[in-house]
Write a structure and sequence with these properties.
The complex is a heterodimer.
Chain A lengths: L24 H5 L2 E10 L4 E7 L11 E7 L5 E7 L9 E7 L5 H8 L6 E8 L11 E6 L4 H12 L6 E7 L15 E5 L14 H9 L7 E6 L1 H13 L7 E5 L2
Parallel strand pairs in A: 7-8, 7-10, 8-9, 10-11
Antiparallel strand pairs in A: 1-2, 1-6, 2-5, 3-4, 3-6
Chain B lengths: L22 E2 L21 E6 L5 E4 H5 L3 E9 L4 E12 H8 L7 E6 L4 E5 L9 E6 L2 E2 L9 E3 L12 E7 L6 H4 L18
Parallel strand pairs in B: 1-5, 2-11
Antiparallel strand pairs in B: 2-3, 4-5, 5-8, 6-7, 6-11, 8-9, 8-10
The chains are: A alpha/beta, B mainly beta.
The complex binds flavin-adenine dinucleotide.
Flavin-adenine dinucleotide sits at the interface of chains A and B.
Chain lengths: 255, 201
Protein backbone atom coordinates (compact mmCIF):
# COMPACT_ATOMS: atom_id res chain seq x y z
CA UNK A 1 0.00 0.00 0.00
CA UNK A 2 1.52 3.34 -0.85
CA UNK A 3 0.61 6.65 0.66
CA UNK A 4 2.40 9.70 -0.71
CA UNK A 5 5.47 10.67 1.30
CA UNK A 6 5.02 13.44 3.85
CA UNK A 7 5.19 16.91 2.35
CA UNK A 8 3.96 15.70 -1.04
CA UNK A 9 1.88 18.18 -2.98
CA UNK A 10 -1.74 17.10 -2.87
CA UNK A 11 -4.05 18.63 -5.49
CA UNK A 12 -7.35 20.18 -4.43
CA UNK A 13 -9.30 17.13 -5.59
CA UNK A 14 -8.15 13.54 -5.76
CA UNK A 15 -9.28 10.49 -7.63
CA UNK A 16 -8.83 6.85 -6.80
CA UNK A 17 -7.76 7.50 -3.25
CA UNK A 18 -6.04 6.10 -1.38
CA UNK A 19 -3.22 4.73 -3.51
CA UNK A 20 -2.94 1.06 -4.18
CA UNK A 21 0.49 -0.50 -4.36
CA UNK A 22 3.98 0.61 -5.17
CA UNK A 23 5.57 -0.99 -8.20
CA UNK A 24 8.96 -2.65 -8.10
CA UNK A 25 11.10 -0.42 -10.27
CA UNK A 26 13.64 -3.16 -10.68
CA UNK A 27 11.28 -5.71 -12.22
CA UNK A 28 9.47 -3.02 -14.23
CA UNK A 29 12.73 -1.99 -15.87
CA UNK A 30 14.07 -5.46 -16.72
CA UNK A 31 13.25 -7.39 -19.86
CA UNK A 32 13.17 -11.14 -19.44
CA UNK A 33 12.44 -14.15 -21.58
CA UNK A 34 9.02 -15.75 -21.44
CA UNK A 35 8.64 -19.19 -23.04
CA UNK A 36 5.28 -20.10 -24.48
CA UNK A 37 4.17 -23.43 -23.00
CA UNK A 38 0.51 -23.74 -23.96
CA UNK A 39 -2.19 -22.15 -26.13
CA UNK A 40 -5.85 -22.49 -25.18
CA UNK A 41 -8.64 -21.29 -27.42
CA UNK A 42 -11.23 -19.24 -25.53
CA UNK A 43 -13.49 -17.96 -28.33
CA UNK A 44 -13.16 -17.77 -32.13
CA UNK A 45 -11.38 -14.40 -31.65
CA UNK A 46 -9.47 -14.90 -28.40
CA UNK A 47 -6.93 -17.37 -27.05
CA UNK A 48 -4.98 -17.72 -23.84
CA UNK A 49 -1.19 -17.96 -24.02
CA UNK A 50 0.56 -19.55 -21.08
CA UNK A 51 4.22 -18.70 -20.47
CA UNK A 52 6.97 -19.96 -18.22
CA UNK A 53 8.77 -16.94 -16.76
CA UNK A 54 11.16 -18.41 -14.21
CA UNK A 55 12.29 -15.10 -12.73
CA UNK A 56 8.83 -13.49 -12.53
CA UNK A 57 8.65 -11.66 -9.22
CA UNK A 58 4.90 -11.98 -8.92
CA UNK A 59 2.06 -9.58 -9.57
CA UNK A 60 -1.23 -8.45 -8.16
CA UNK A 61 -4.50 -9.13 -9.97
CA UNK A 62 -5.19 -6.25 -12.35
CA UNK A 63 -1.60 -5.47 -13.29
CA UNK A 64 -0.30 -5.66 -16.84
CA UNK A 65 3.05 -6.18 -18.51
CA UNK A 66 4.83 -5.00 -21.61
CA UNK A 67 5.55 -7.60 -24.26
CA UNK A 68 8.10 -7.28 -27.04
CA UNK A 69 8.58 -9.17 -30.28
CA UNK A 70 11.80 -8.78 -32.27
CA UNK A 71 12.16 -9.32 -36.02
CA UNK A 72 15.32 -10.67 -37.66
CA UNK A 73 16.40 -7.17 -38.71
CA UNK A 74 16.19 -5.84 -35.16
CA UNK A 75 12.77 -4.21 -35.54
CA UNK A 76 10.73 -4.54 -32.37
CA UNK A 77 7.04 -4.20 -31.58
CA UNK A 78 5.90 -3.80 -28.01
CA UNK A 79 2.39 -3.79 -26.57
CA UNK A 80 0.75 -3.88 -23.15
CA UNK A 81 -1.17 -6.96 -22.04
CA UNK A 82 -3.07 -7.54 -18.83
CA UNK A 83 -2.18 -10.60 -16.81
CA UNK A 84 -5.03 -13.12 -16.77
CA UNK A 85 -3.70 -15.62 -14.27
CA UNK A 86 -3.91 -15.38 -10.50
CA UNK A 87 -0.71 -14.47 -8.67
CA UNK A 88 -0.24 -17.91 -7.15
CA UNK A 89 0.71 -19.58 -10.43
CA UNK A 90 4.44 -20.14 -9.62
CA UNK A 91 6.77 -19.30 -12.46
CA UNK A 92 3.95 -19.00 -14.97
CA UNK A 93 1.74 -16.24 -16.26
CA UNK A 94 -1.14 -16.28 -18.71
CA UNK A 95 -2.25 -13.63 -21.19
CA UNK A 96 -5.44 -13.65 -23.22
CA UNK A 97 -5.24 -11.91 -26.57
CA UNK A 98 -7.94 -10.84 -28.94
CA UNK A 99 -7.06 -11.36 -32.56
CA UNK A 100 -7.12 -7.76 -33.82
CA UNK A 101 -7.72 -7.44 -37.56
CA UNK A 102 -4.38 -6.65 -39.17
CA UNK A 103 -2.77 -6.55 -35.73
CA UNK A 104 0.99 -6.81 -35.72
CA UNK A 105 1.50 -8.44 -32.33
CA UNK A 106 -1.83 -10.20 -31.75
CA UNK A 107 -1.60 -11.36 -35.39
CA UNK A 108 1.71 -13.09 -34.71
CA UNK A 109 0.28 -14.77 -31.62
CA UNK A 110 -2.82 -16.02 -33.38
CA UNK A 111 -1.23 -17.21 -36.62
CA UNK A 112 2.41 -18.10 -35.89
CA UNK A 113 3.03 -18.70 -32.19
CA UNK A 114 3.49 -22.24 -30.91
CA UNK A 115 4.76 -23.75 -27.68
CA UNK A 116 8.49 -23.31 -27.28
CA UNK A 117 8.53 -19.81 -28.80
CA UNK A 118 10.22 -17.10 -26.80
CA UNK A 119 9.17 -13.48 -26.36
CA UNK A 120 10.41 -10.73 -24.03
CA UNK A 121 8.36 -9.29 -21.18
CA UNK A 122 8.85 -6.68 -18.50
CA UNK A 123 6.67 -6.05 -15.51
CA UNK A 124 4.39 -6.21 -13.70
CA UNK A 125 3.45 -2.60 -14.37
CA UNK A 126 1.12 -0.05 -12.81
CA UNK A 127 -0.14 -0.49 -9.30
CA UNK A 128 -3.14 1.69 -10.02
CA UNK A 129 -5.50 -0.94 -11.39
CA UNK A 130 -4.30 -3.62 -8.97
CA UNK A 131 -6.65 -5.27 -6.51
CA UNK A 132 -4.88 -7.01 -3.64
CA UNK A 133 -8.14 -8.60 -2.47
CA UNK A 134 -8.68 -6.23 0.40
CA UNK A 135 -11.84 -4.29 -0.52
CA UNK A 136 -15.25 -5.15 -1.94
CA UNK A 137 -14.80 -4.99 -5.70
CA UNK A 138 -17.29 -4.31 -8.46
CA UNK A 139 -15.73 -5.37 -11.74
CA UNK A 140 -17.05 -4.27 -15.12
CA UNK A 141 -15.44 -5.38 -18.35
CA UNK A 142 -16.16 -5.86 -22.03
CA UNK A 143 -14.46 -8.07 -24.60
CA UNK A 144 -10.84 -8.70 -23.67
CA UNK A 145 -11.30 -6.06 -20.95
CA UNK A 146 -12.36 -8.95 -18.75
CA UNK A 147 -8.77 -10.26 -18.67
CA UNK A 148 -7.41 -8.32 -15.65
CA UNK A 149 -10.77 -8.72 -13.91
CA UNK A 150 -10.56 -12.50 -14.33
CA UNK A 151 -7.21 -12.43 -12.56
CA UNK A 152 -9.09 -10.85 -9.63
CA UNK A 153 -11.88 -13.44 -9.74
CA UNK A 154 -9.35 -16.28 -9.87
CA UNK A 155 -7.40 -14.77 -6.98
CA UNK A 156 -10.60 -14.41 -4.96
CA UNK A 157 -11.35 -18.11 -5.55
CA UNK A 158 -7.87 -19.47 -5.10
CA UNK A 159 -7.51 -17.75 -1.74
CA UNK A 160 -11.08 -18.40 -0.66
CA UNK A 161 -11.55 -14.69 0.12
CA UNK A 162 -14.87 -13.64 1.57
CA UNK A 163 -14.64 -9.95 0.66
CA UNK A 164 -17.57 -9.30 -1.73
CA UNK A 165 -16.78 -9.45 -5.45
CA UNK A 166 -19.13 -9.01 -8.42
CA UNK A 167 -18.36 -9.15 -12.13
CA UNK A 168 -20.42 -7.67 -14.95
CA UNK A 169 -19.01 -8.81 -18.27
CA UNK A 170 -20.23 -7.62 -21.64
CA UNK A 171 -19.84 -9.61 -24.85
CA UNK A 172 -21.54 -9.54 -28.24
CA UNK A 173 -22.90 -13.04 -27.77
CA UNK A 174 -22.35 -16.23 -25.77
CA UNK A 175 -19.80 -17.56 -28.28
CA UNK A 176 -17.66 -14.44 -27.77
CA UNK A 177 -17.76 -14.55 -23.98
CA UNK A 178 -14.17 -15.14 -22.83
CA UNK A 179 -13.80 -17.57 -19.87
CA UNK A 180 -17.52 -18.49 -20.14
CA UNK A 181 -17.06 -21.85 -18.44
CA UNK A 182 -15.33 -20.37 -15.43
CA UNK A 183 -17.92 -17.89 -14.22
CA UNK A 184 -19.91 -18.56 -11.10
CA UNK A 185 -22.56 -16.80 -9.05
CA UNK A 186 -20.41 -13.64 -8.84
CA UNK A 187 -20.84 -12.98 -12.58
CA UNK A 188 -23.59 -11.45 -14.68
CA UNK A 189 -22.97 -11.56 -18.43
CA UNK A 190 -24.46 -8.80 -20.58
CA UNK A 191 -25.02 -9.73 -24.24
CA UNK A 192 -25.22 -6.91 -26.75
CA UNK A 193 -26.11 -8.71 -30.02
CA UNK A 194 -27.34 -12.23 -29.33
CA UNK A 195 -28.13 -14.13 -26.16
CA UNK A 196 -29.30 -17.56 -25.09
CA UNK A 197 -33.07 -18.03 -25.08
CA UNK A 198 -34.73 -16.07 -22.28
CA UNK A 199 -31.76 -13.75 -21.73
CA UNK A 200 -32.29 -10.13 -22.82
CA UNK A 201 -30.09 -8.55 -25.49
CA UNK A 202 -28.80 -5.02 -24.96
CA UNK A 203 -26.01 -2.75 -23.89
CA UNK A 204 -24.82 -2.42 -20.31
CA UNK A 205 -27.29 -0.02 -18.69
CA UNK A 206 -28.20 1.66 -15.44
CA UNK A 207 -30.57 -1.22 -14.71
CA UNK A 208 -27.63 -3.60 -14.44
CA UNK A 209 -25.85 -1.35 -11.96
CA UNK A 210 -28.74 -0.20 -9.79
CA UNK A 211 -29.21 -3.46 -7.84
CA UNK A 212 -25.46 -3.85 -7.32
CA UNK A 213 -25.07 -0.33 -5.98
CA UNK A 214 -28.23 -0.62 -3.88
CA UNK A 215 -26.85 -3.80 -2.35
CA UNK A 216 -23.34 -2.40 -1.86
CA UNK A 217 -21.44 -3.73 1.15
CA UNK A 218 -20.72 -1.41 4.07
CA UNK A 219 -18.18 1.16 2.94
CA UNK A 220 -19.21 0.76 -0.70
CA UNK A 221 -17.52 -0.76 -3.72
CA UNK A 222 -14.19 -0.14 -5.31
CA UNK A 223 -15.12 -0.16 -9.01
CA UNK A 224 -12.77 -1.47 -11.73
CA UNK A 225 -13.72 -0.79 -15.34
CA UNK A 226 -11.79 -2.28 -18.25
CA UNK A 227 -12.19 -2.44 -22.01
CA UNK A 228 -12.02 -0.33 -25.13
CA UNK A 229 -12.13 3.39 -24.59
CA UNK A 230 -15.70 3.54 -25.87
CA UNK A 231 -16.82 0.97 -23.32
CA UNK A 232 -14.79 2.54 -20.52
CA UNK A 233 -16.40 5.93 -21.15
CA UNK A 234 -19.87 4.43 -21.24
CA UNK A 235 -19.49 2.24 -18.14
CA UNK A 236 -17.72 4.85 -16.01
CA UNK A 237 -20.36 7.48 -16.78
CA UNK A 238 -23.11 5.00 -15.91
CA UNK A 239 -21.39 4.28 -12.61
CA UNK A 240 -21.16 7.97 -11.73
CA UNK A 241 -24.81 8.45 -12.64
CA UNK A 242 -25.74 5.50 -10.44
CA UNK A 243 -24.03 7.15 -7.49
CA UNK A 244 -20.58 5.53 -7.41
CA UNK A 245 -18.07 8.20 -6.25
CA UNK A 246 -15.62 9.19 -9.04
CA UNK A 247 -12.63 8.73 -6.78
CA UNK A 248 -13.58 5.08 -6.27
CA UNK A 249 -13.56 4.21 -9.97
CA UNK A 250 -10.39 2.85 -11.59
CA UNK A 251 -10.27 2.58 -15.35
CA UNK A 252 -7.98 0.57 -17.60
CA UNK A 253 -8.43 1.55 -21.24
CA UNK A 254 -7.02 -0.71 -23.91
CA UNK A 255 -6.77 2.24 -26.30
CA UNK B 1 19.08 -9.72 -29.73
CA UNK B 2 16.19 -12.07 -28.97
CA UNK B 3 14.66 -12.70 -32.38
CA UNK B 4 11.08 -13.96 -32.23
CA UNK B 5 10.61 -16.97 -34.51
CA UNK B 6 8.40 -16.13 -37.46
CA UNK B 7 7.94 -12.48 -36.55
CA UNK B 8 8.69 -10.03 -39.32
CA UNK B 9 6.54 -7.07 -38.30
CA UNK B 10 4.45 -5.16 -40.75
CA UNK B 11 6.16 -3.67 -43.78
CA UNK B 12 7.70 -0.39 -42.70
CA UNK B 13 9.57 2.54 -44.04
CA UNK B 14 12.27 4.00 -41.85
CA UNK B 15 10.80 7.06 -40.21
CA UNK B 16 13.35 9.33 -38.51
CA UNK B 17 10.51 11.04 -36.62
CA UNK B 18 9.57 7.84 -34.80
CA UNK B 19 11.28 7.38 -31.42
CA UNK B 20 12.51 3.86 -30.58
CA UNK B 21 9.79 1.38 -29.61
CA UNK B 22 6.99 3.51 -31.07
CA UNK B 23 4.58 2.91 -33.94
CA UNK B 24 2.61 5.34 -36.06
CA UNK B 25 -1.01 5.31 -34.90
CA UNK B 26 -2.11 7.05 -38.08
CA UNK B 27 -5.57 8.54 -37.71
CA UNK B 28 -6.20 6.80 -34.38
CA UNK B 29 -5.91 8.75 -31.17
CA UNK B 30 -6.14 6.24 -28.34
CA UNK B 31 -7.45 7.46 -24.97
CA UNK B 32 -5.58 6.25 -21.91
CA UNK B 33 -6.67 8.13 -18.79
CA UNK B 34 -7.08 6.34 -15.48
CA UNK B 35 -9.99 8.44 -14.29
CA UNK B 36 -13.56 9.15 -15.29
CA UNK B 37 -13.71 11.85 -17.98
CA UNK B 38 -14.98 14.92 -16.11
CA UNK B 39 -17.87 17.06 -17.33
CA UNK B 40 -15.98 20.32 -17.20
CA UNK B 41 -17.47 23.33 -18.96
CA UNK B 42 -15.14 26.14 -20.09
CA UNK B 43 -16.91 28.39 -17.57
CA UNK B 44 -15.86 26.00 -14.77
CA UNK B 45 -12.27 25.67 -15.95
CA UNK B 46 -9.47 27.67 -14.38
CA UNK B 47 -5.70 27.48 -14.37
CA UNK B 48 -3.52 28.48 -11.42
CA UNK B 49 0.24 28.90 -11.14
CA UNK B 50 1.66 29.13 -7.62
CA UNK B 51 4.35 27.71 -5.34
CA UNK B 52 7.79 29.32 -5.74
CA UNK B 53 6.60 32.38 -7.65
CA UNK B 54 6.49 36.10 -6.82
CA UNK B 55 2.86 36.61 -7.83
CA UNK B 56 0.62 33.49 -7.74
CA UNK B 57 -2.32 33.84 -10.05
CA UNK B 58 -5.44 32.06 -11.34
CA UNK B 59 -6.80 32.58 -14.85
CA UNK B 60 -10.35 31.79 -15.86
CA UNK B 61 -11.31 30.77 -19.41
CA UNK B 62 -11.66 34.30 -20.77
CA UNK B 63 -8.55 35.62 -19.04
CA UNK B 64 -6.48 32.74 -20.41
CA UNK B 65 -7.87 33.33 -23.90
CA UNK B 66 -6.88 37.02 -23.69
CA UNK B 67 -3.20 35.94 -23.68
CA UNK B 68 -1.38 35.83 -27.03
CA UNK B 69 -2.31 32.75 -29.05
CA UNK B 70 0.33 30.15 -29.75
CA UNK B 71 -0.04 26.94 -31.75
CA UNK B 72 1.89 23.68 -31.76
CA UNK B 73 2.27 21.71 -34.94
CA UNK B 74 4.27 18.51 -34.73
CA UNK B 75 4.30 15.02 -33.24
CA UNK B 76 3.20 13.46 -29.97
CA UNK B 77 4.35 10.20 -28.36
CA UNK B 78 2.53 8.05 -25.82
CA UNK B 79 4.39 5.66 -23.51
CA UNK B 80 1.97 2.89 -24.57
CA UNK B 81 3.92 2.85 -27.90
CA UNK B 82 1.85 4.93 -30.30
CA UNK B 83 2.97 8.17 -31.87
CA UNK B 84 0.92 10.63 -33.84
CA UNK B 85 2.45 12.76 -36.56
CA UNK B 86 1.64 16.27 -37.70
CA UNK B 87 -0.97 17.12 -35.09
CA UNK B 88 -2.11 20.71 -34.58
CA UNK B 89 -2.98 22.16 -31.18
CA UNK B 90 -4.04 25.73 -30.48
CA UNK B 91 -3.70 27.53 -27.15
CA UNK B 92 -1.24 29.71 -25.28
CA UNK B 93 2.44 29.16 -24.61
CA UNK B 94 3.12 28.33 -20.98
CA UNK B 95 5.77 31.04 -21.06
CA UNK B 96 2.99 33.65 -21.08
CA UNK B 97 1.57 32.29 -17.81
CA UNK B 98 4.99 31.89 -16.19
CA UNK B 99 6.07 35.43 -17.09
CA UNK B 100 3.03 36.78 -15.29
CA UNK B 101 3.77 34.94 -12.01
CA UNK B 102 7.55 35.59 -12.02
CA UNK B 103 9.13 32.28 -10.93
CA UNK B 104 11.54 32.37 -8.02
CA UNK B 105 15.13 31.59 -9.17
CA UNK B 106 15.07 28.67 -6.70
CA UNK B 107 12.26 26.95 -8.62
CA UNK B 108 13.60 23.92 -10.51
CA UNK B 109 10.56 21.67 -10.96
CA UNK B 110 6.80 21.78 -11.17
CA UNK B 111 3.89 19.53 -10.38
CA UNK B 112 1.09 19.89 -12.91
CA UNK B 113 -2.32 18.88 -11.62
CA UNK B 114 -5.75 18.35 -13.12
CA UNK B 115 -9.28 19.22 -12.16
CA UNK B 116 -9.65 15.48 -11.51
CA UNK B 117 -6.74 15.33 -9.08
CA UNK B 118 -4.25 13.72 -11.47
CA UNK B 119 -0.67 14.93 -10.98
CA UNK B 120 2.57 14.74 -12.97
CA UNK B 121 6.00 16.23 -12.32
CA UNK B 122 8.23 18.11 -14.74
CA UNK B 123 11.58 19.90 -14.66
CA UNK B 124 10.84 23.61 -15.09
CA UNK B 125 13.25 23.66 -18.05
CA UNK B 126 10.84 21.37 -19.93
CA UNK B 127 8.02 23.88 -19.50
CA UNK B 128 9.78 27.05 -20.66
CA UNK B 129 11.33 28.36 -23.87
CA UNK B 130 8.36 27.67 -26.12
CA UNK B 131 8.25 23.94 -25.34
CA UNK B 132 4.94 23.74 -23.46
CA UNK B 133 1.39 25.01 -23.96
CA UNK B 134 -2.02 25.19 -22.43
CA UNK B 135 -4.02 23.78 -25.35
CA UNK B 136 -7.75 24.05 -25.98
CA UNK B 137 -7.97 23.42 -29.70
CA UNK B 138 -7.17 20.34 -31.71
CA UNK B 139 -7.15 20.56 -35.48
CA UNK B 140 -8.94 23.90 -35.31
CA UNK B 141 -11.78 22.59 -33.14
CA UNK B 142 -12.38 22.65 -29.37
CA UNK B 143 -10.37 19.90 -27.68
CA UNK B 144 -12.64 16.89 -26.95
CA UNK B 145 -13.32 16.07 -23.28
CA UNK B 146 -11.79 12.59 -23.52
CA UNK B 147 -8.56 14.15 -24.79
CA UNK B 148 -8.45 16.65 -21.93
CA UNK B 149 -10.85 19.36 -23.05
CA UNK B 150 -11.69 22.07 -22.34
CA UNK B 151 -7.93 22.55 -21.78
CA UNK B 152 -4.88 20.39 -21.20
CA UNK B 153 -1.20 20.84 -20.68
CA UNK B 154 0.84 20.05 -23.80
CA UNK B 155 4.52 19.09 -23.49
CA UNK B 156 5.02 17.34 -26.82
CA UNK B 157 8.72 16.55 -26.44
CA UNK B 158 7.98 14.24 -23.49
CA UNK B 159 5.77 11.13 -23.29
CA UNK B 160 2.17 12.22 -23.29
CA UNK B 161 1.33 11.25 -19.69
CA UNK B 162 3.19 14.48 -18.80
CA UNK B 163 0.64 16.51 -20.78
CA UNK B 164 -1.96 16.53 -17.99
CA UNK B 165 -5.55 16.51 -19.28
CA UNK B 166 -8.12 18.89 -17.74
CA UNK B 167 -5.19 20.87 -16.36
CA UNK B 168 -5.98 22.95 -13.28
CA UNK B 169 -2.63 24.29 -12.24
CA UNK B 170 1.11 24.18 -11.82
CA UNK B 171 2.93 24.38 -8.52
CA UNK B 172 6.57 25.39 -8.76
CA UNK B 173 8.98 23.64 -6.38
CA UNK B 174 12.69 23.61 -5.60
CA UNK B 175 12.80 19.81 -5.87
CA UNK B 176 11.35 17.01 -7.99
CA UNK B 177 8.26 15.32 -6.62
CA UNK B 178 6.77 12.25 -8.36
CA UNK B 179 3.22 12.61 -9.67
CA UNK B 180 0.53 9.97 -10.14
CA UNK B 181 2.12 7.65 -12.72
CA UNK B 182 5.60 8.41 -11.46
CA UNK B 183 4.55 7.03 -8.05
CA UNK B 184 3.21 4.04 -9.98
CA UNK B 185 6.58 3.17 -11.48
CA UNK B 186 6.87 5.51 -14.45
CA UNK B 187 10.00 7.51 -15.27
CA UNK B 188 10.50 10.93 -13.65
CA UNK B 189 11.19 12.72 -16.95
CA UNK B 190 9.85 10.59 -19.81
CA UNK B 191 11.96 11.51 -22.83
CA UNK B 192 10.68 9.33 -25.73
CA UNK B 193 13.98 9.55 -27.62
CA UNK B 194 15.74 7.92 -24.69
CA UNK B 195 12.87 5.52 -24.05
CA UNK B 196 12.47 6.75 -20.48
CA UNK B 197 9.32 4.71 -19.87
CA UNK B 198 9.67 3.25 -16.43
CA UNK B 199 11.65 4.31 -13.43
CA UNK B 200 15.06 2.68 -13.87
CA UNK B 201 15.15 3.11 -17.68
C1 LIG C 1 -2.88 -1.52 -20.24
C2 LIG C 1 -3.31 -2.30 -21.46
C3 LIG C 1 -3.66 -3.63 -21.31
C4 LIG C 1 -4.07 -4.38 -22.43
N1 LIG C 1 -4.44 -5.69 -22.24
C5 LIG C 1 -4.87 -6.42 -23.30
C6 LIG C 1 -5.29 -7.78 -23.12
O1 LIG C 1 -5.30 -8.34 -22.01
N2 LIG C 1 -5.72 -8.47 -24.22
C7 LIG C 1 -5.75 -7.89 -25.47
O2 LIG C 1 -6.12 -8.58 -26.43
N3 LIG C 1 -5.34 -6.61 -25.66
C8 LIG C 1 -4.90 -5.87 -24.61
N4 LIG C 1 -4.49 -4.57 -24.82
C9 LIG C 1 -4.40 -4.04 -26.20
C10 LIG C 1 -3.02 -4.42 -26.77
O3 LIG C 1 -2.01 -3.69 -26.11
C11 LIG C 1 -2.86 -4.16 -28.28
O4 LIG C 1 -3.25 -2.84 -28.55
C12 LIG C 1 -3.66 -5.09 -29.15
O5 LIG C 1 -3.28 -6.45 -28.92
C13 LIG C 1 -3.45 -4.76 -30.63
O6 LIG C 1 -2.07 -4.87 -30.96
P1 LIG C 1 -1.63 -5.44 -32.35
O7 LIG C 1 -0.15 -5.29 -32.44
O8 LIG C 1 -2.19 -6.80 -32.57
O9 LIG C 1 -2.36 -4.46 -33.33
P2 LIG C 1 -1.73 -3.16 -34.03
O10 LIG C 1 -0.71 -3.57 -35.00
O11 LIG C 1 -1.33 -2.19 -32.97
O12 LIG C 1 -2.98 -2.67 -34.80
C14 LIG C 1 -4.16 -2.14 -34.17
C15 LIG C 1 -5.08 -1.63 -35.26
O13 LIG C 1 -4.45 -0.57 -35.95
C16 LIG C 1 -4.24 -0.90 -37.31
N5 LIG C 1 -2.85 -0.45 -37.64
C17 LIG C 1 -1.97 0.08 -36.78
N6 LIG C 1 -0.82 0.43 -37.39
C18 LIG C 1 -0.96 0.12 -38.68
C19 LIG C 1 -0.13 0.23 -39.82
N7 LIG C 1 1.10 0.76 -39.74
N8 LIG C 1 -0.60 -0.23 -40.96
C20 LIG C 1 -1.83 -0.77 -41.02
N9 LIG C 1 -2.66 -0.88 -39.99
C21 LIG C 1 -2.25 -0.46 -38.83
C22 LIG C 1 -4.41 -2.41 -37.42
O14 LIG C 1 -4.91 -2.80 -38.65
C23 LIG C 1 -5.38 -2.68 -36.31
O15 LIG C 1 -6.72 -2.49 -36.73
C24 LIG C 1 -4.10 -3.79 -23.71
C25 LIG C 1 -3.73 -2.44 -23.85
C26 LIG C 1 -3.34 -1.70 -22.75
C27 LIG C 1 -2.95 -0.26 -22.94
Amino acid sequence: MSTPPAGTFVPPSRFAVPGRIAVSNRSAARWQTATLTEIRRETPQAATFRFAVPRWEGHLPGQHLMLRLTAGDGYTAQRHYSIASAPDDEGHIELTLDHVDGGEVSGWFHTRARPGDEVQVRGPLSGFFAWPGDRPALLIGAGSGVVPLMSMVRHHRARGLDVPLRLLVSARGPEELIYAREYGAETTPVFTRSAPRGVPVGRLAGDHLAPLLAGAPAGGWEAYVCGSNGFAEHASRLLVRAGQPVERIRIERFG
Amino acid sequence: MNVTRGFTGRPRVHNPGLPPGQYDAGDDWPVLSAEVTPDLAPADWSFRVDGLVAAPRTWDWDEAHALPESAYEGDIHCVTSWSKFGVRFGGVSLDAFLEAVRPDPAATHAVAYSHTGYTTNLPLADLTGGRAWIAWEYDGKPLAAEHGGPARLLVPHLYFWKSAKWVAGLRLLDHDEPGFWEQNGYHARGNPWEEQRYSGD
